[in-house]
Structure formats: C-alpha cells, structure tokens
Amino acid sequence: MQFFFIPAVVFLVIVAPIWLILHYWSQSRSNRGLSAEERHQLDEALALAEKLEQRIATLETILDVQQPDWRRHDESHHHRSS
Hints:
By secondary structure, the protein is mostly helical. The chain is built from 3 helices and no strands. The chain folds into 2 domains: about 1-35; about 40-80.
C-alpha cells in the first residue's frame, strides 16, 4: 500500500495542480481568438486577395478577347511538362 501512497501524494501535490493550471491557461488562450492587430492583418490580406482576384479576372478577359485560344495553349503546355 505504501508503494502507491507516495507516488499518489506526489502526483496530487505537484503534477495535478500544474496540469490543471496549464490546461485552463491553454483553454483561455484558445478561446480568446485573434487579437485586434491579427484581425487587422487578416482583413488587409483578404482585401489584397480580392484585388488580386479581380486583376486576374480582368487579365483573363483581356486575353480571351485578344488571344481566344490561350487557355488551350496553357493546358497543353501544362500536360507536356507534367
């Protein structure tokens, strides 16, 4: 019985409190979400991605008018290099 008593006391006095503190600390960190600065950076990145998407769509429209078969050429080139 004494063989299990000492490790149990050590666990309850040292390991368990540290484990609980770290557990609840990590839970509170994960529940906070993004900071204001991180949210601002994310919003800027999303705005930039939308601008780039619009530019690509514009360039594809221009290419469709000036070079109607450019997509076919790109696909055949892609298949050859694979």
